[in-house]
Each structure stands twice: as structure tokens, then as C-alpha cells.
Amino acid sequence: MNLRYLLDTNICIYIMKNRPMHLAPIFAQHARELCISSITVMELEYGVACSQQQVSNAEKLAGFLSRLTILDFDSAAAEHAARIRAHLRQCGTPIGAYDALIAGHARSLGLTVVTNDVREFERVPGLMFENWLQQPPQSQLNEPIPAYR
User: Which Gene Ontology molecular-function terms are recorded (predicted)?
Assistant: First the structure.
């Protein structure tokens, strides 16, 4: 298994809704390289639990998740997430807790985050990310990870 891309929650929702249409072929092209964090699974499950169409949305989510590798959030990811969140807070540009967790998970494994939430992730040192909603999708690597004490 050669995992390369960690899908952010917003991209998962776009893919499940099949909008925009150009995402489906990109998803298919990279199918064996895709994974999601258990943090993202929680966010998606929460969305289903709060929806008015829980049964149909749960079925859609189950079908979607069956095609992906789900990565458990571990202590290395937690350390990266904590450092990311502390660094951005010290810089005066705080990041949301879930985005910090996803960024930390991806960075700890050297994965590229696929997201439409570029404004949050572009501030994370050492994080690679792509926005597949742009045509053509563009990759970006942020500045190196600052030294931590």
C-alpha cells in the first residue's frame, strides 16, 4: 500500500455528493493512494448523526469509507498536532482543533492533505496540501517545520 493523500472532511463531502463532477475521475485515479484520518471519520459520522436523513446518509458514508484506508490517530500525530496548534497560536494565527489534528496526522506520516480549506492549512509549517477543487489541482509545500524546543 502506497498511501499519499489524506482527505480532509470537506473534500470527502464533495466526493460523496459527486460535486463538482471533475472530482470523481481524480478520486478514481488516486484510489489506491487515498486515506482518511479517524478524526475525519468522527466528523463525518457526526454529520450523519445530526442530519435529517440519517439512514440514507449513513449508507452513503459506509459505501464511501469502504473504499478508503482509515488511519488511526496515534501519539506521533498528537505530538505534531499539539506543536502545530501551539506554533500558530504563538504566531497570532490560531487554527481550529480538528484542522490541527488532521494537519498533525498528515505531517506525522508525510502525507499530502487534500482540502478545499486552503486558508487553514497553508499556515502549517512543513505540511503538503492540494486543493482538488481547483482546475488543475495544485500541490503546495509550506515552509520547513520550525525547530521546537
Answer: hydrolase activity; magnesium ion binding; RNA nuclease activity; toxin activity
pTM: 0.90
For the stretch 100-123, pLDDT in tens is 999 999 999 999 999 999 999 999
Cβ partners under 8 Å of residue 146, min gap 6: 87, 125
Is 8 labelled a binding residue?
Answer: yes
Architecture of the domain spanning 5-73+110-139? 3-Layer(aba) Sandwich (3.40)
> What is the distance, to the nearest Å, from the Cα of residue 30 to the centroid of all Cα atoms in its chain?
15
Residues recorded for the chain: 149
99 is in an annotated binding site: yes
Q: Give the helix ranges, DSSP H, for 22-96.
A: 23-29, 38-50, 54-65, 75-90
